[in-house]
Prior knowledge:
Radius of gyration: 20 Å
Helix content: 25-40%
Number of domains: 2
Strand content: 25-35%
Largest sheet: 7 strands, mixed
Amino acid sequence: MIKYAKESRFIQAVDCIVFGFDGETLKILLIQRGFEPEKGKWSLMGGFVKAGEDFDQASNRILKQLTGLDGMYLEQLNTFSHPQRDPMERTISTAYFALIDINKYKIQLSDDYHPEWFSLKRMPKLIFDHQQMVELALRRIRYKAALHPILFELLPNRFTIPQLQNLYESVYNTTIDKRNFSKRVLATGLLIKQEEKDKSGSKRGAYYYHLNMQKYYAKFQAFLNFIPNPTNLIF
């Protein structure tokens, strides 16, 4: 069998950045690394690509193994290849980000490896270049959210206007005027009002809505009326 005999061999890994929304704030799922180097320190969900796997298969396998999660929105982000990114051995990592509704996947989450949710504002220090991966993922999400309905992957099928506002404020790290947000989002005509109310926050309650996907794709520019400037991507 002919091989590239003079070329160096590298280890290929994948790291998964799992973002979740609990109705109030955007969170990230982290795990304590189980082996050296940096054993016991906080890390993204990661592992090595096996022979016969492509990157998508490896990322899904690793997420299932470490967290129990599957069937979620998963998108390839970028490849991180600095020669010294892993002090043990030359390792190239391809990062993915996932978006989930925390409440929807709460039962599915496995305790075998003790994954924990952290608010982005209270996230512990991460190993290697994982903080860089998180920041790049946030910039990608903020940009794409102005063009595609990816943030609705973080919401249940039906949601309230306050939940939607909490989501956008968390993702863009900003504060949006409550009345102005409600007025603008309803003016888009892209949300379908439901008969039921969520009364968990007050006796008056808040109506549930769900996104009309057909209208969204037909006139997604309407959402740009209330989304903060997508070019302001500072984390």
